[in-house]
Design brief:
By secondary structure, the protein is α+β, with helices and mostly antiparallel strands. The chain is built from 9 helices and 5 strands, in the order H-H-H-H-H-H-E-H-E-E-H-H-E-E. A 5-stranded mixed beta sheet has the order 1-2-3-5-4, with helices on one face. Helix 4 runs antiparallel to helix 5 and helix 6 runs parallel beside helix 7. It starts with a helix and ends in a 10-residue tail after the last strand.
Length: 354
């Protein structure tokens, strides 16, 4: 009820009542002054009371009617503006409002019409950008797929294909020397065995790249654990795994970290010649920490950084930076390789991360 009394119509009525009361007091003061100063015969106390009572009855009705009537047009125009704003909020940017008057409310209506035109243009621009973004995403995905295929083709040619060719040549040589020199043939067979194991390792590393990136709704720790279990069945490497319960994180963040683990294990299989791998995943109060280390042959990390020839290391670093993380690698020849990844997380919020 009180809110209804604060409407524009009752505001107009109150303003007319204020004017009516003010005029009532002015007339009363004038009549009393004339009665005191001039004392005309027709102006006595009874006449003053009768006049004032008549004015109260007539003036009160006139003030209410005038306020109600004069506020009707204003209320209607404001209702039009309110309806226009609702239409704009619902996306009907083609809606228009027009007033015949040339006042402030008419100017507000014109500005709302201009706002609708601008919002309509922005909507069309956003739709155009969305279409262009979708096309760009398709092109980028296609380019990334082609690039990945080319990289796998190069790896197959540079590693597995050449090793298979060498195996063929050694096998033929072994057949020719088997009857003549069995000791030499035995050495060649040992080389063939070693090269076959190396080719098998290369193939496993390449197949690891083709493994699905998505965790299928599983937590990151469980996905890594399943990946390690799969590799243990195929490799002679000892895995020391420490995966703590880190809670739930955004899906995109977990998939990026899972892809980093895949890339790191692929590099270890192909290049490290390691017999032991350590993986630790822990969560602190302000960061998520992932450590991947091996006891392999290692390499000169500074030289790799200067030459920028390691596609895998660059890829892992970029994936960490995409989720706001810090990527650090430590390696020396004959001392293994250690990768540390730190991802900031929100303090005291167990289910969200930056």
């Amino acid at each position: 009820m009180l809110q209804h009394l604060n409407s524009i119509r009752y505001t107009y009525i109150r303003s007319h009542l204020y004017g009516y009361v003010l005029i009532l007091f002015i007339l009363l003061s004038l009549l009393l002054s004339a009665h005191v100063w001039f004392s005309p015969g027709w102006l006595n106390a009874q006449a003053i009371l009768f006049f004032m009572a008549s004015y109260v009855l007539v003036g009160l009705g006139v003030a209410i009617y005038a306020g109600f009537k004069s506020s009707g047009d204003m209320k209607q125009r404001i209702d039009y503006i309110s309806t226009m704003i609702i239409q704009l909020s619902r996306g009907a940017f083609s809606s228009k409002i027009y007033f015949n008057e040339n006042d402030e409310i008419a100017r507000i209506g014109s500005e709302l019409n201009e706002l609708g035109d601008k919002l309509k243009q922005q909507k069309e621009s956003l739709l155009k950008l969305a279409d262009e973004k979708a096309e760009y995403a398709k092109s980028a995905h296609k380019a990334a797929t082609i690039e990945e295929r080319q990289r796998l083709a190069r790896d197959l040619h540079d590693a597995v294909s050449q090793q298979l060719f060498a195996l063929t040549m050694l096998s033929q040589a072994c057949l020719r020397t088997f009857d003549k020199n069995q000791d030499q043939a035995k050495g060649q067979l040992e080389d063939i065995t070693q090269m076959a194991l190396q080719a098998q390792t290369e193939m496993r590393a390449l197949l690891l790249h083709l493994r699905p990136v998505h965790l299928s709704g599983e937590p990151l720790a469980k996905g890594i654990d399943q990946l390690i279990e799969e590799l243990q069945q195929k490799c002679q490497i000892v895995f020391n795994v420490d995966l703590n319960d880190i809670g739930q994180f955004p899906e995109s963040m977990e998939e990026q970290l899972f892809r980093v683990v895949q890339e790191a294990l692929s590099n270890i299989l192909r290049h490290a010649n390691a017999t032991e791998v350590t993986i630790e995943l822990t969560r602190g109060t302000q960061e998520l920490f992932l450590h991947i280390g091996d006891n392999g042959i290692g390499f000169d990390a500074e030289e790799k950084r200067m030459t920028k020839t390691s596609y895998g290391l660059t890829n892992m670093k970029e994936r960490c930076e995409e989720i706001g993380g810090e990527f650090t690698i430590r390696s020396r020849e004959d001392e293994g390789t250690h990768i540390d990844i730190r991802i900031p997380i929100k303090v005291n919020e167990g289910e969200e991360a930056l």
